[in-house]
C-alpha cells in the first residue's frame, strides 16, 4: 500500500486538477472581452428603454433636441435664401 502524499497521489491530483486550471485560466483570459461585449449590449438596451420611457412621459431626449435644432437651422437657412432672393429682386430696376 502506498503512503498518503506519495508522488503517485500527487501525480493523480495534478492530472485531475491540471485541465481544470487550464480551463479556468482560459475563462479568466476571456472574461474582460465577454464583459465588454455584455456591457455594450446592456448599455444599448438600457439606453433604448430609457428613451422609450422618456417618450411615454412626454420628455424630450437629447437626440430629439439635436434633431429639432438641425431642422430649425435648415429652416432659418432657407428663409435667409428667400429673403436674399427677394432683396435681390427688389434691387433690380
Secondary structure tally, helices: 2
Q: Extract low-pLDDT stretches.
A: none
* Mean pLDDT level: 81
Strand content: under 5%
> What overall form do the CA principal axes indicate?
rod-shaped
| Alpha carbon gyration radius | 34 Å
Q: SSE order in H/E notation? A: HH
Total domain units: 2
Helix content: over 70%
Distance between the termini: 121 Å
Largest sheet geometry: none
Q: What's the number of extended β-strand segments?
A: 0
Structural class call reads: mainly alpha
Describe the structure.
The protein is mostly helical and 93 residues long. It has 2 domains: 1-59; 60-93. It has 2 helices and no strands. The termini are far apart. The model has no long low-confidence stretch (mean pLDDT 81).
Keywords:
93 residues, mainly alpha, 2 domains, 2 helices, rod-shaped
Summarize the structure.
By secondary structure, the chain is mostly helical. The protein has 2 helices and no strands.
Helix and strand arrangement:
Blueprint: H1 7-56, H2 62-91
